[in-house]
Design brief:
The structure holds 2 protein chains of 2 kinds. Chain A is mostly helical. Chain A has 2 domains: 2-75 and 148-434, ABC transporter involved in vitamin B12 uptake, BtuC (Orthogonal Bundle); 76-147. Chain A contains 18 helices and no strands. Chain A has helices spanning 2-20, 23-50, 57-72, 77-107, 111-137, 156-176, 181-201, 203-206, 222-227, 229-238, 240-243, 248-291, 293-303, 305-310, 315-341, 351-365, 370-399, 407-434. The longest helix of chain A is centred in the middle third of the chain and has 44 residues, at 248-291. Chain B is globular and about 70 Å long. In chain B, strands 1-2 form a two-stranded antiparallel ribbon. Chain B has helices spanning 2-43, 50-70, 81-109, 114-136, 153-160, 170-192, 194-204, 206-211, 216-242, 246-251, 253-263, 268-286, 290-296, 315-329, and strands at 149-151, 168-169. Chain B has one domain (2-329): ABC transporter involved in vitamin B12 uptake, BtuC (Orthogonal Bundle), CATH 1.10.3470. In chain B, helix 1 packs antiparallel against helix 12. Chain B is an all-alpha fold. The chains are: A mainly alpha, B mainly alpha. At the A-B interface, helix 7, helix 16 and helix 18 of A face helix 4, helix 11 and helix 14 of B.
Chain lengths: 447, 340
Amino acid sequence: MRNIIVFTLMAVLLLMVGFLQSWSLMLSIFNLCILSAIMTLGVNIQWGYAGLFNVGIMGFAALGGLSVVLVSKEGVNEAIALGGSDMLMAILFMAVTIILSIYINRRIHNKFITTLIVVFGYFVARYYYINASASIESVSPSLSGYLGGLGLPVMLSWIVGGIFAALAAWFIGRISLGLRSDYLAIATLGISEIIISLIKNEDWLTRGVKNVTAIPRPVPYEFELQQASWFQDLVAKFYANKVADLSDVERLSMLSEYVNDASIIFVKLCYTGLFLSVLILFVVLANLALSSPWGRMIRAIRDNEVAASAMGKDVKKRHLQIFIIGSAIAGIAGAMLVTYDGQFTPGAYNPLRYTFLIWVMVIVGGSGNNLGSIIGGFLIWFIWIEAEPAGFWLMEFVVSFLDDSGSLKQHLLDSAQYMRLILMGAVLLLVMRFSPNGILPEVNKKL
Amino acid sequence: MQEFTDIFNAFVLLLNFIFVPALAYGAQLSLGALAVTLVYAVLRFSNFAQGDTMAFGTVIAILFTTYLQDIGVNLGFLPTALLAIPIAIFVCIIYILLIDKFVYAYYRSKNSKPITIVMASIGVMFVTGGIVRFIIGPRHHNFSDGSRFLIGAREFKDMTGLSEGLSIKTSQFLTLTIAILLVGFIFYFLQKTKTGKAMRAYADNKDLALLSGINPSRIVRVTWILTAILTAMAGVLYGLDKGFMANSYHQLLLPIFASVIVGGIGSPIGAIAGAFVVSFSEIVLTYVYKKFFIYLLPEQLEPTGLVQFLGTEYKFAISFVILVIVLLIRPTGIFKGKVI
């Protein structure tokens, strides 16, 4: 019952945006709400199911974004010809070094030899890497200056993004799970910062802060739609009543305007359909998993680790599983986000938007409840978007009482954006304190 | 003779660009790490708000310094900010105690899991970061005045006749002096005073400490006060040395955590040792050794590249790698902190 009320209210809010502002804006918000909800679902799996605290969501989302570039963009042949072989050598040497050092460490247990191998391998790899990155970045830096990608369909990158994130999560989980619970938080914080600085600085891979634009779309382009006859007919049929009693010239101009508007909305609707199906798939899977024997085991571990491990459950392994699954979902959502934006902007990743906001969504929505994390994602994203103009209006209202020439007024106006930081932090603290179960609390089914 | 001068030059080069900066940076880190480790030992959670609280303390110092400069107060060759430090510490203590009263106290009374408190500390981190940026904005601020160098590179060259100069910034000298005094005070406090002993007892075994009549709220308050002193101090010293920028303070979090874990979480002496391990590895590994080798090697062997282990943009990756290695090899850290 509570579910229905809450979701109806959310729908009313979104419809209000549609009627009061515009349907295009409403669909933009709605699409990003869905993406937030997917990301939140991933974190909810980690926190709500297993109590794992991931402070590096931003990093996993960025890995997803990176995969979009690597999968969908066309390769830059000139750069590959110039620096490809060197880069391959560098990667090869790094891989050999890692494998060899692990092998030596396991077999011979000699730390000195292992260190020697690591240092030697690192320098050889770095030698090739410096040459390669310089020559790749020298290829028309303003246009490409990077290796490009494989030129495969962009939807494939969603899966690849998940795999990238899963690998990173495996690495982090292997190291820090099984130790103190805050070590995982610290390690995820570290890896996400490193991933971000990698994608910002490795121009040969991601073009760094020069951004990768014009990422191929999984849905048609607006101008294609505007020229397609079936689409024009569809719009004409849809608006037949409205334009019926106009003269021919007027009708044509009206119709072309309608076609333009409709093409934008149609493209967004296509995205909505794609995203919504992914979200529904994940929610169904997550709910099934939660009520399966596996889910019961997970919750048993969360509620009492000692008892669960006494019953013969491998706590560390289950935690690792959960951590990987949740991070992979965050990676997929990150890839979808970049696909939707149509560009990869490493400079845009900041922890507030990609880690902290997601956490607020999880806590507000209700940790442990998958529907809760969806409503959390929707509601918080909605507030986040609509609060920005509201914040500025509020600030302008406040400063309108101040003297026009004062520097305080300008300072307050400039600082209005940081109010969101304080506001969101306060929301998190307040919800954690006064309503720790969130909007939709976890349902404890009888086992 | 030429060879000897070259060797001296190479040595001074390393001293100037590695040893002195790493020593100062390590001292700044160790104050921050000490604060984290104290909170950890007594209150049992990793304080993610540390970096931003340091920024908060520094902002207070900057505001007060600007005020002092406006009314024309200065300290001669020392930076005016020294006068602002007591105010910064005072405001920081009040801020942290308020945060404790409104945020952490509740979770303590409910005996929440440490990870819940860590999450609350992240909330505090964002609120504090927001306040800092709201007051002062995201840009770079330099609030150091007075004379910049204690020993300038030129004076050193004139004195020794070497072609490499050794310069010691006033801020570096101040950092070391103040850090030594402060750390000495903290250790004296923990080892010799009654309250300090009670704190250690409480950290060691909470129940036993409570049984022997130690007042827990007093312990918590004293811990936060010590933390606030260390935090404000670390922030101001770091800012005097490298300038203030909200983001770079936020990013100090990772090196600080690395220091704490390397040294052994919960162990004060470990936090200091860890801080120097982190600071030296960071600077040693990102320094460009080209000039060093040019001094030492014969001409035909001179390197053409930069001879750098890792680009400076990955500075904090080093703290992370150190963290990973420690977690893999010796999760207790150098000085056997608490693991689980």
